[in-house]
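Changelog entry

Holo records now carry the ligand SMILES as an explicit input line rather than a separate metadata file. Below, a converted record for S-adenosylmethionine, shown in the new format.
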Amino acid sequence: MHYFHYKESSEQALRHEIERDLTKEIRRDKGVPLLAIPASIDLSDTYLGFSTAALVDAKTIGDDTISKQAQQIVEQLCAKIPSGSKINFHCYSITDTEKIIETGRAEILKEKIKSLLKKERILPLRKNFDRSLGFVQVAITPNRSLLVSVINCEELNRYRSLISPFPGGFTYGEEDKDAPSRAFRKICEAQEIMGISIEENEQVIDLGACPGGWSYVARKRGANVIALDRSPLRDDLMNDPQVQFIQADAFKYQPTVAIDWAVSDIICAPERIKELIQFWVAEKRCRRFIFTIKFHGSDEYPMLSEFKAIVQTLEFSVILKQLNANKNEVTIMGWKQE
Ligand SMILES: C[S@@+](CC[C@H](N)C(=O)[O-])C[C@H]1O[C@@H](n2cnc3c(N)ncnc32)[C@H](O)[C@@H]1O
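Structure line, unchanged by the conversion:
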């Protein structure tokens, strides 16, 4: 089966999205906050905006001793991942209160697997996520059975929008009390999901920038920022020589310099984000982009299917995902295949 994690508030939205775009054969096991669909469904280049993370083609291992479970996981893993490889590795428990925890049984199981993998010369990354490597996910369910998903690096690229660098797709993100708004968390999380960061001296255009959370993050990374909004940013950003503030309608702006990142957190109808995708992405006016799609209630959710159709026409690698930092929003982000 394929299993999908989601934010608690988005179960219905995800269920409808799967029914609309993939299959009506959806299962939810008692006590396990995941939606499951048959593994026979091909998830290559599939987008599910309301899923935070997926366990693609997960095999179930029944309740047993930790040693025996670890042994079975390693057998499954070695059948797919060559000796001498580095891998991304998540091992976590899903509690019956829908939380993801990496301590306790998950930690012991993880250590056991790591020591068995050493003998096979397979090295799990300790911290960062690398989108060029394979990915092993072990989820311990509340009844102590395991869901184990093993994908190689080529598959990871095909499932790029469904997987997450965070266990179960969940992260608390880092706090920054100096940021002008809580919205800064969205652009931080999006960069982590893409596995690409804003770099020093890059040019960022921040559409709908006030009070400046996203511009603040870009400046902290050493980028130059053009910020557009009808209202000014916080004073320190307005006085920053590397920030050019333009009081204008972001949809009417024509760039006069080369743009690396086009980012938008504009409050507007989803339809208008399609205009931004056309202008900035389809017409290749940037190399990377992050746009928030904001919904009023739930009536507009089916529009996500239209975004998925547009994505297929773009020469960009795209990820469509509800971030932890998103409220009634989904984020579309991507990078040019260079
Ligand atoms: C959610 S706020 C952005 C928050 C910002 N990302 C941050 O981190 O502080 C949305 C902004 O979009 C701006 N906005 C809405 N429509 C706009 C338009 N057509 N052109 C420019 N800005 C617009 C609003 O003025 C508002 O400041």
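Spot-checked after migration. The mean pLDDT is 96. DSSP finds nine helices and 16 strands in the chain.
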